[in-house]
Design brief:
The protein is built from 4 helices and 15 strands. By secondary structure, the protein is α+β, with helices and mostly antiparallel strands.
């Protein structure tokens, strides 16, 4: 569980690092699944934006009770899991993730999501750890992004450099098995991995069911982001669908 101080830190900074790690056995299983996944789908050697569309074996780790409890402290008692992504970020040539806000990519209205970022390997400055701009979420507004389809990036939407001060970035250096939670509006990114160690991570995306996953909007956003969210399967993790408009039909 998150302490009152940790919840306040999340509200102020846009992220928090809980006093929690997944079990060693779960971490080992995730690593094995990741290795098999990349072997089967080499096109995802750097990044897979829609992990569960290809491998539902990861799903049980997104249902870990302690994680669901912490997310509910942030976004409420009625929660849907709508996506999971895998950043494999291999040694020597792991791609840069440009500075961005997650909400630029997501067809959720009202725009609310708590992301759980799980370190599969130790995350360090040397291997391109995630970086946050603390407090950049406070206005709860999206900043203008530009499209960059260069092959050096995992994602194609980037905030221009005049919108943040990289010297103020927080480096998320955490151990394998640890997690961080972050807000949908926080500015974040990561540098390329040119070290001799991989920096694998998995994200878990949870939204309050008072929000709606808009599949028509997802299809429209795909034209810009190149990410296909319109066929995501939603999983009700806790409570009920408050909106009455989300569907939980199993999709491939």
């Amino acid at each position: 569980m998150l302490s009152d101080q940790q919840i306040e830190f999340y509200k102020k900074s846009g992220f928090v690092i809980p006093d929690f790690s997944i079990s060693d056995s779960d971490l080992m299983e995730i690593r094995e699944l990741q290795e098999k996944f990349v072997h089967k789908y080499p096109e995802f050697k750097d990044y897979c934006s829609t992990l569960l569309a290809y491998e539902t074996g990861f799903l049980r780790f997104l249902k870990i009770p302690e994680i669901i409890s912490m997310v509910s402290q942030i976004i409420g008692e009625n929660i849907a899991l709508w996506n999971s992504s895998l950043f494999s970020k291999p040694a020597h040539n792991g791609l840069t993730t440009p500075w961005h806000q997650d909400g630029e990519y997501w067809p959720i209205r009202p725009l609310k999501t708590c992301t759980v970022w799980l370190a599969i390997d130790d995350a360090t400055i040397e291997n391109g750890c995630l970086q946050y701009m603390p407090g950049s979420h406070l206005k709860q507004e999206l900043i203008q992004h530009k499209t960059d389809n260069t092959s050096k990036y995992t994602l194609n939407q980037e905030i221009t450099a005049d919108a943040y001060d990289e010297d103020k970035a927080f480096n998320l250096e955490i151990k394998a098995g640890q997690i961080a939670l972050h807000d949908v509006y926080i500015i974040h990114g990561s540098k390329a991995n040119q070290s001799s160690n991989p920096r694998r991570s998995m994200t878990m995306r949870y939204m309050p069911t008072s929000s709606v996953f808009d599949r028509e909007l997802a299809a429209e956003m795909h034209k810009k982001t190149k990410i296909q969210h319109q066929d995501r399967t939603l999983f009700l993790m806790k409570g009920v669908d408050l909106s009455g408009k989300n569907d939980f039909i199993q999709r491939k």
